[in-house]
Design a protein that fits this description.
This protein has 128 residues and is mostly helical. The chain has helices at 2-28, 33-46, 49-57, 62-88, 98-124.
């Protein structure tokens, strides 16, 4: 049980670090109409994973946990698209986005695995 607590704490910390990275990234965008638009969008989606995961950890049921984790996943997916838009539109040098996008993809994989595990346990349990 201690390992599961430690893993969930580690995942939450990674989401917090990712949010901090996104905040820094958004601050580097040009103060143009386009830059502000992308900054606002990526700030919203890129910082949403950590608090939504905190909500998932306090879920009232397995179904509630799965629902909240799907929100985490959706926000991370949206963030990945904004990162790719930034790279394609040259708002930030693409080489500066490689590590951020890689971490985003890894966080998505972890969220997906967590959802899959919760669904498997829900299907195996007579109480859902």
């Amino acid at each position: 049980m201690q390992d599961k607590i430690a893993l969930s704490d580690q995942f939450e910390e990674r989401l917090i670090e990712f949010a901090a990275t996104i905040i820094s990234l958004a601050g580097r965008l040009a103060k143009t109409f386009q830059g502000r638009h992308v900054a606002n969008q990526i700030l919203r989606s890129g910082t949403a994973g950590a608090p939504n995961y905190a909500e998932a950890r306090g879920a009232e049921s397995r179904a509630d946990f799965i629902h909240k984790m799907r929100i985490v996943q959706k926000e991370l997916n949206e963030t990945a698209v904004w990162i790719r838009i930034m790279a394609k539109s040259s708002l930030i040098a693409p080489e500066l986005l490689v590590d951020i996008l890689a971490e985003n993809k890894e966080l998505c994989r972890i969220a997906s695995a967590s959802i899959k595990t919760a669904r498997t346990h829900a299907a195996a349990s007579p109480f859902g």
